[in-house]
Amino acid sequence: MKRALITGVTGQDGSYLAEFLLGRGYEVHGLIRRASTFNTSRIDHIYTDPHEEGARFFLHYGELTDGSRLVTLLSRIQPDEVYHLGAQSHVRVSFDEPEYTGDTTGVGTTRLLEAIRMIGLDCRFYQASSSEMFGATPPPQNELTPFHPRSPYGAAKVYGYWMARNYREAHGMYAVNGILFNHESPRRGETFVTRKITRGVARIKAGLEETLYLGNLDAVRDWGYAKEYVEGMWAMLQADEPDDYVLATGTAYTVRDFVEIAFEHAGLDWEKHVRFDERYLRPSEVDALIGDASKAADELGWKAEVLTPELARLMVDADYETALAEVRSKG
Ligand code: NAP
Ligand code: F7E
């Protein structure tokens, strides 16, 4: 039985990836942060008591800032595949916390790579690189496009990207970069723009709220469905040779387009409910990200099926169920 370790298992992608790997018969280990409240809501449905016979999903406390803990865990778990998804992943927040973002999102990758090297572990390593690394470089962007990050988050991801490449070149490690464009789902964090919009639409339709405050509506993004993107992560680690791949839909929508699609799906007029708030602007913005994923299609057979309009609708539907449940619970 293959064994995988996922950092960031409590996040959007980590939860879908854990489900996917369990479905393929893997034993899955996840790194979680100790918190005073529960932070496992995205994985509770797949968790089983480790005492149960046949349990294949195990959680371990750990932190990307704690290198010695990573050494201990890796040597104990001995994974065949390491999916490094843990990160401070919010671009706007990275401007407020640049040092912390560099430490976790950037140097966290080095701690993990170095832990693998130190214990001589023979495993395959996936680095969650990001289209944010392209930043100001005009679209379409692919594996050969130069990086020009526009945020501390983007800069930290560029560092992580090059550390994965360096461990591949210098130490012969099987390390790959998945350069993923924005991918969303009903499990997306509530402060990323798609989820903020679909949750806002649902709560307005359910009568729980009236107004949705947003920043720059002109930014262009290539939004795909997270559940499909984790399959691409796995496919990258099954290739004969380690390489770097873009995953994207290749389609372009503005934030305003996403707003219109989501409100229209709920039968609402967005202009009556959306207001501008400058606090959601960034000191430097990424104007347009549109990915060219033809290498992943040709070499891995991966292709995005769910495009942005369908994605927006399925997210609104999921958030509306939750909003209705809240209405019912209030009696
Ligand atoms: P997410 O929902 O924000 O999840 C991030 C995960 O990292 C969470 O499990 C979080 O734990 C964990 N984490 C944060 N800081 C940590 C630390 N110091 N130590 C240990 N764990 C820590 O992100 P996502 O959307 O699933 O994205 C997964 C990865 O792909 C991230 O590296 C992200 O930067 C990258 N990425 C995402 C996208 C996208 O569009 N979603 C695109 C390109 C790349 P808690 O639950 O405790 O907070
Ligand atoms: O912003 C604009 C905002 O925060 C998208 C992360 O997963 O994808 C994500 O980063 C756009 C930006 O995602 C609001 O200015 C307008 O232009 O949803 P977002 P992001 O910054 O693209 C990349 C690929 C990652 O790797 C990251 O980890 O929407 N926008 N109004 C807003 N954004 C937010 N968050 N909130 C607003 O109110």
TrEMBL record:
Taxonomic source organism: Pseudonocardia xishanensis
EC number: 4.2.1.47
Enzyme class, UniProt record, top EC level: lyase
Cofactor requirements of the protein: NADP(+)
Domain annotation NAD(P)-binding: ranges: 5-315
This protein's name: GDP-mannose 4,6-dehydratase
Coiled-coil intervals: none
Keyword Zinc-finger set for record: no
Keywords (A to Z) from UniProt: Lyase, NADP
Gene3D superfamilies cross-referenced by the UniProt entry: NAD(P)-binding Rossmann-like Domain, UDP-galactose 4-epimerase, domain 1
Gene: gmd
Tagged with keyword Endoplasmic reticulum: no
Reactions accelerated catalytically: GDP-alpha-D-mannose = GDP-4-dehydro-alpha-D-rhamnose + H2O
Family indicated by similarity: Belongs to the NAD(P)-dependent epimerase/dehydratase family. GDP-mannose 4,6-dehydratase subfamily.
Alphabetized InterPro entries for the sequence: GDP_Man_deHydtase, NAD(P)-bd_dom, NAD(P)-bd_dom_sf
